[in-house]
Amino acid sequence: MIDKELVLHYSFTLLQFSCTLPQLTSMLVEWDKYVYCIYYCEFLRYCGTTFLSQ
Known about the structure:
- It contains 3 helices and no strands.
- Helix content is 78%, strand content 0%.
- The longest helix has 20 residues, at 33-52.
- It has one domain (4-52).
């Protein structure tokens, strides 16, 4: 069983550095689909903001 809090912490730490979609996707793949959708959308929103602000 994946520790969701740990994955969430790691995912958003990862986002701060690289926005590595395949890695994030592989971490979230076993989550409930609703939760996955939320954090996937957050990922895209974060990356869009990051890239636009550079």
